[in-house]
From TrEMBL:
It holds the Pfam family Aph-1. This is Gamma-secretase subunit APH-1. The gene is Aph1a_1. One of its GO terms (cellular component) is gamma-secretase complex. It comes from Motacilla alba (White wagtail). Keywords: Membrane, Notch signaling pathway, Transmembrane, Transmembrane helix. InterPro entries: Aph-1. Potential subunit of the gamma-secretase complex, an endoprotease complex that catalyzes the intramembrane cleavage of integral proteins such as Notch receptors. GO terms for biological process: Notch signaling pathway; protein processing.
Length: 194
């Protein structure tokens, strides 16, 4: 019954993410009509990032609130044979969920923009998988490891979705080594040139 409730909660969150996408697209169209040049002042990528980060922060607040409520209760975690790593693993899990929601928001918005059902299905599926993995707790090695691998893979997917490439990362890291184009690259990164 608990697993069914978790699956329902994940599907409800994804429906809310879609409703947020639709609302922001309508607001974007309204902002474009009000601007002088006819373009929206907010890019779709920024909206996706901010929406995903908002979902992630809300998820993190709910997760950490439950953990803090457990810490204030009677008794001590681990005293009856439970894992003494409950709080630290919960913190890492909350961090992973905040990042995952941010990445999922970016991928979800891109999939909606481009009308790619496969991207939407992968976001919903990975969200369901992440929620399902938390049922393996308190066997934290079985849940945290796959969740962090999923976070890394989803982060790389979101990075490539936004147009990121390994070449751009190298250009960013070598900003101080390349005098040509340094001012342009540093201004894009908002770093004062040397």
């Amino acid at each position: 019954l608990l697993a069914l409730g978790a699956a329902g909660a994940v599907l409800l969150q994804e429906l809310c993410r879609f409703a947020c996408f639709r609302t922001l697209r309508k607001a974007d169209a309204g902002l474009a009509t009000l601007s002088e040049d006819g373009r929206s002042p907010i890019s779709p990528r920024r909206m996706a990032y901010v929406s995903g980060l908002s979902f992630g922060l809300i998820s993190g607040v709910f997760s950490i609130t439950n953990i803090l409520a457990d810490s204030a209760g009677p008794g001590t975690v681990g005293i009856h044979g439970d894992s003494p790593y409950y709080f630290i693993t919960s913190a890492f899990l909350t961090m992973a969920l905040v990042l995952l929601h941010t990445f999922w928001g970016i991928i979800f918005f891109d999939a909606c923009e481009r009308r790619r059902a496969g991207g939407l299905a992968l976001v919903v599926g990975s969200h369901l998988l992440t929620s399902g993995l938390t049922f393996l707790n308190p066997w934290y090695e079985a849940s945290l490891g796959p969740i962090f691998i999923l976070t890394l893979c989803t982060g790389l997917w979101a990075f490539s979705t936004t147009g990121g490439s390994f070449h751009n990362v190298l250009k960013c890291l070598s900003c101080k080594q390349e005098p040509e184009g340094q001012a342009m690259l540093c201004s894009a990164l908002q770093v004062p040139p040397e």
